[in-house]
Amino acid sequence: MQTPAYRLEPEDYDLVYEPAEDSFLLLDALEDELEAIRKLRPAVCVEIGPGSGIVISALATALRGSYCVAVDINPHACRVTQRTGRLNDCRLEVVNMDLLGGLADGCVDLMVFNPPYVPTAEENGGDLEEQIGVFGEGGHDLVKSWAGGFDGMVVTNRVLRDLDRVLSKDGVFYLLLLKENKPLNVISVLGENGFLGRIVKERKIRGEHLFVIKISRK
């Protein structure tokens, strides 16, 4: 799976998450899993929080028969994702919305998420908007792309709570986590709620230990 071309304008850098090692780890994991993904024949593929759009564009290129959708609360990320899709001549829809709320029940066959995973506060340290405010007004949208609140799981937990509703019977979810997010604990909790989770790829990079978890129904 080729890394898509992308272009960030100077004004984008303070507004949109630039592809980094975590982005490329997720791409590598999806490439490793591509044969299994194709066997699923996913009709609908969704990326939450596409940022620059390289992951959903790679999927749209590799899965030409699938309907690929990117959803992001950041309108600037939506604009850049659309641009990346055009640069790579791939069909994808981009929707400006908060996580999964606008998706129909059981509609997602393949979902991917590189969430805001960096712990940014102690327990009971205020809500996520307050925590993000500590970093200042400049680049507020950019901070949202990596600031994960207490234990780095505030946004991810919202998605996991909605997973049973949106994921199709044979659907799969690829989720990127940081070691501090306690991925084995996440897998254990998923198991208690009817899902199987396993680590399919991990990588240590510049002070971070990252994991990609594959999640499916039992």
UniProtKB/TrEMBL annotation:
Gene3D superfamilies attached to this UniProt entry: Vaccinia Virus protein VP39 (3.40.50.150)
InterPro entries attached to this UniProt entry: DNA_methylase_N6_adenine_CS (IPR002052), Euk-Arch_PrmC-MTase (IPR052190), PrmC-related (IPR004557), SAM-dependent_MTases_sf (IPR029063), Small_mtfrase_dom (IPR007848)
Keywords: Methyltransferase, S-adenosyl-L-methionine, Transferase
A Pfam family it matches: MTS
Domain (Methyltransferase small): residue spans on this chain: 33-121
Family classification: Belongs to the eukaryotic/archaeal PrmC-related family.
Record's protein name: Methyltransferase small domain-containing protein
Native species: Aedes albopictus (Asian tiger mosquito)
